[in-house]
Design a protein that fits this description.
With 537 residues, the protein is an alpha/beta fold. It has four domains: 4-159, Alpha-D-Glucose-1,6-Bisphosphate, Chain A, domain 3 (3-Layer(aba) Sandwich); 189-302, Alpha-D-Glucose-1,6-Bisphosphate, Chain A, domain 3; 306-426 and 441-450, 3-Layer(aba) Sandwich (Alpha-D-Glucose-1,6-Bisphosphate, Chain A, domain 3); 458-536, 2-Layer Sandwich (TATA-Binding Protein). The chain is 40% helix and 18% strand. It is built from 18 helices and 19 strands. The chain has helices at residues 4-11, 37-53, 90-98, 102-115, 136-149, 162-174, 186-200, 219-229, 259-265, 306-324, 342-351, 363-370, 391-399, 405-420, 428-442, 446-450, 486-494, 522-536, and strands at residues 29-32, 58-63, 72-78, 125-130, 153-159, 210-213, 240-243, 279-283, 290-295, 301-304, 332-337, 356-359, 375-379, 385-389, 458-463, 472-474, 479-482, 501-506, 513-518. The strands form five sheets. A five-stranded mixed sheet has the order 1-3-2-4-5, with helices on both faces. It has a five-stranded mixed sheet with strand order 7-6-8-9-10, with helices on both faces. The structure holds 2-acetamido-2-deoxy-1-O-phosphono-alpha-D-galactopyranose and zinc ion (ZN).
């Protein structure tokens, strides 16, 4: 039985800042860490309730602010299969977070318990982890208070990457079933993906080392740990050089490095010592995003972002499907958002001849759309994504009897790749190894990967507006329905440019409108972005 007095008492230690309104958005709750105590406490209450509602299935709580500055933090919930919290529960999180008093909080909690028909006597189980931010331990204490007050069983996994926690949640909940996902431990995660990597690299040779910038976040020590399980370059593996893995200097996190810096600044971290041709990658602060890049022979910076990883993975998987004799059973599709470069969309449709879906921003939307394919490849341009295999696809891959040695080889690689790729969420460490496997199989350098298509020049602008809520987007956020007339004005501007494409939408994570524009030249893309910004400003 939930003890409402205990909930009230513990809550009084974590009062809500009176003048703040919170919203559970695409990235859970995220803001300056010193505002988060009450929010994390209340998220703990909700985690317990969600677990009870699901008869004691384990729910995950991740404390991280990803690519945001070191003084920020955030919290989000992970559902039993390792997916993001079911969307219909997001408003409950918001409601709890905004309760003004202890009494109101308990009233809402009681009502929610009834509304969702959670059995108060059911067990509640939660596992949680955090990134390396200094504020993490305080927030964990708030979380624990909620778990104790609600009589929840819990395990503290200390520091983990976000995708590692998602992995563990799925492992716990599938343990002992036919869908067992892996050993329920951090070491189990390394063992699983290292074994898959070894298998996928059988007989292949890498095309040189890769330098990985870890944003001075939790991905650094975790990649170092993963490396211990991987074969080195001389044993058929990859030489992974880890940089920016200093987690002892909190202020270094995401500062002048990391995937977000590289993607938004379109340049390598200033500390980077790369020479022309060197293969580089950057993770974000909680290691769920990755982008690749290199300097070409003229020393020009070249970015290989989420769109590039998606096209690379889709083309590889399509090849493997054909080579293994399973093409008919494995319908591959790609899922993007409106931010995907138009050239990548065209490449998927025209060259790879694969179907493509465009969804709203936020990985939960992409993830759901990807489940509509046998093999669904989804990536946001910023490098967050993964590949999903449907249960039917996994069955076909597991059971197929190869008809030739060539089919056998392809099938073995395909099987390994299904184990290598994190099925719960975009995972920078797993995606890193996937890209390395594909480059090794294709025998490609970054330049050859880049040569597959030419990106359209593009510009992303953040526009400060009075009230971002008046901007309502439709059609996978590619068009503005409101304010009235804005879309027509935007289209008038677009029509002035060759290959012009542009849209504006309210950010789900920041108090701003984002304007994206692409066109046939750099100057035109910049121009178009400026004109559309003027429309919404
Ligand atoms: P918003 O702020 O809604 O644009 C940003 C990213 C998303 C996603 C979320 C969550 C862009 C343009 N937007 O969303 O892709 O990653 O943050 O972190 O990169
Ligand atoms: Zn992240």
């Amino acid at each position: 039985m939930a003890d409402y007095e205990k909930i009230k008492e513990a809550s009084s230690k974590h009062p809500k800042p009176a003048d703040k309104t919170f919203q559970y958005g695409t990235a859970g709750f995220r803001m300056k860490a010193n505002l988060l105590n009450s929010v994390v406490y209340r998220v703990g209450l909700l985690a317990a309730l969600r677990s009870r509602k699901l008869n004691g299935q384990t729910i995950g709580v991740m404390i991280t602010a990803s690519h945001n500055p070191p003084e920020d933090n955030g919290v989000k919930l992970v559902d039993p299969m390792g997916e993001m919290l079911e969307a219909s529960w997001e408003p409950y999180a918001t409601e709890l977070a905004n309760a003004q008093s202890e009494d109101e909080l308990v009233k809402i909690y009681e009502k929610l318990t009834e509304d969702v028909k959670a059995k108060p006597g059911a067990p509640a189980r939660v596992i949680y982890a955090r990134d390396t931010r200094a504020s993490g331990s305080t927030l964990v204490a708030c979380l624990k208070d909620a778990l104790d007050a609600t009589g929840t069983e819990y395990t503290d996994y200390k520091h983990l990457t976000t995708p590692q926690l998602h992995y563990l949640v799925r492992c716990v909940n599938t343990k002992g079933t036919q869908y067992e996902y892996g050993e329920v431990s951090e070491q189990g995660y390394y063992k699983k993906i290292a074994a898959a990597f070894k298998q996928a690299m059988k007989h292949k040779k890498t095309t040189g080392p890769v330098t990985v910038d870890c944003a001075n976040g939790v991905g650094g020590p975790k990649l170092v740990e993963l490396k211990k399980h991987l074969p080195g370059a001389s044993e058929g593996g990859v030489d992974i050089k880890v940089v920016n893995d200093d987690v002892l200097k909190p202020e270094a996190l995401n500062s002048q490095c990391g995937a977000d810096f590289v993607k938004t600044q379109q340049r390598a971290p200033p500390s980077s010592k790369i020479s022309s041709g060197d293969r580089c990658a950057s993770l974000d602060g909680d290691a769920d995003r990755i982008v690749y890049y290199f300097a070409d022979k003229d020393n020009t910076f070249r970015l290989l972002d989420g769109d590039r990883i998606a096209t690379l993975a889709a083309s590889f998987l399509a090849d493997l499907g054909r080579a293994s004799g399973l093409a008919e059973q494995l319908k591959i599709g790609v899922v993007q958002t409106a931010y995907a470069n138009g050239a990548s969309t065209q490449y998927v449709e025209k060259n790879l001849k694969l179907p493509i879906l465009c969804t709203n921003t936020g990985v939960k939307h992409l993830h759901h759309a990807a489940q509509r394919f046998d093999i669904g490849v989804y990536f946001e341009a910023n490098g967050h994504g993964t590949v999903l295999f449907s249960p039917a696809a996994l069955k076909a891959i597991a059971n197929y009897e190869p008809q030739s040695p060539a089919q056998k080889n392809a099938l073995e690689t395909l099987r390994a790749v299904t184990e290598l790729i994190n099925q719960t969420v975009g995972d920078a460490l797993s995606d890193l190894l996937l890209v390395e496997v594909i480059l090794a199989h294709k025998g490609w350098t970054c330049q050859e990967w880049l040569n597959t298509y030419v990106d359209l020049p593009n510009r992303l602008v953040r526009v400060e507006v009075k009230d971002r809520n008046i901007f309502q987007a439709v059609d996978a956020e590619r068009k503005l329905e409101k304010p009235e007339g804005a879309q027509k004005d935007i289209e008038t501007e677009i029509a002035k440019y060759t290959k012009g494409r542009s849209f504006a939408r309210a950010s789900g994570t920041e108090d701003a409108v984002r304007v994206y524009a692409e066109a046939s030249t750099r100057g035109e893309a910049d121009d178009l972005a400026a004109r559309v910004s003027a429309v919404v400003r």
